[in-house]
Amino acid sequence: MNKKIIFLTFIIIIFLIGSLTTYKVIKKHQDNMLLVSKKYIEEKAKECYLDQKCSSNKITLEELYQNSYLAKQANPITKEYYPENSYVEIKDGNYIFVITN
């Protein structure tokens, strides 16, 4: 009886450690994919602004699409396209991508 309880406890511990580790790895990977996607859009908005084709402090995705700086962009996790009224805001020289609904 003791051997069965010890074996069952060992299996439960292995399962808990494995599932928590897997969750953390997947979550970190998804966060990194979103970060790369946002940084790419921010970089393209910066290019558009520096080329003086986009002049406002809020550069929409639609404006970037029209000026051929970007192809249609999608969220890498949900695979849904970002709304075209989402924008990159320029504050103190920093470019911040804001997703609107």
Overview of this protein structure:
This protein has a three-stranded antiparallel β-sheet with strand order 1-2-3. The protein has one domain (2-98). Strand 2 (87-91) and strand 3 form a beta hairpin. The termini are far apart. The longest helix has 49 residues, at 2-50. It is of the alpha+beta class and 101 residues long. The chain has helices at 2-50, 61-66, and strands at residues 58-60, 87-91, 94-98. The chain is built from two helices and three strands; from the N terminus they run αβαββ.
Structural class assignment: alpha+beta
Q: How is the main sheet built?
A: 3 strands, antiparallel
Assembly state: single chain
Strand content: 5-15%
Low-pLDDT runs? none
Helix content: 40-55%
Strand order of the largest sheet: 1-2-3
**What string, H for helix and E for strand, traces the elements in order?**
HEHEE
What is the number of helical segments per DSSP (H or I, 4+ residues)? 2
Shape designation: rod-shaped
What is the distance, rounded to the nearest whole angstrom, between the alpha carbons of the first and last residues?
Answer: 58 Å
